[in-house]
Amino acid sequence: MIENIEKQFENALERFDESAKTAKEVVESSKSIDLGLDEGKLAGLLDLVDQRINKVATDIRSEMAEERKLIIKHEKKSLMINIGIATMAVVAFIFNKILS
User: Are 28 and 49 in contact (CB under 8 A)?
Assistant: First the structure.
């Protein structure tokens, strides 16, 4: 389960990196190409692209935070189960020593 979540993290980071690179390439290429737009319209278009990139980045960060919380919750449950097993083993050992 943890491996699947780690793979999802890695995939999300790779997608984010790819989209950031693509966005940077688009911005750089749009600076060198005359689109027939004046600077005001082009700036507005680039601001819109930047806002969408920031929204996607925020969504990915929040999704990753939720997944980290789930991983931590799962690790806590596993730790409590292991503590319970160890406690039962100690209690069984003590009862075995007392009764024998």
Answer: no
pTM: 0.48
List, in order, residues 6 or more apart from 56 with CB less than 8 Å away: 16, 19
Report CA Rg, the chain.
26
Q: Count Cβ atoms within 10 A of the Cβ of residue 81 and give its class: 0-12 exposed, 13-18 middle, 19 or more buried.
A: exposed
Neighbours of 11 (CB within 10 A): 10
Domain range spanning residue 28?
A: 2-99
Contacts of 2 (CB under 8 A, 6+ apart): 71, 74
pLDDT digits (tens, 9 = 90+) for 15-56: 888 887 887 787 777 666 665 667 777 788 888 899 999 999
Handedness of CA 82, 83, 88, 89 (dihedral sign): positive
Backbone φ/ψ region at 33: left (φ over 0), alpha (ψ -120 to 50), beta: beta
- The count of domains in the chain is 1
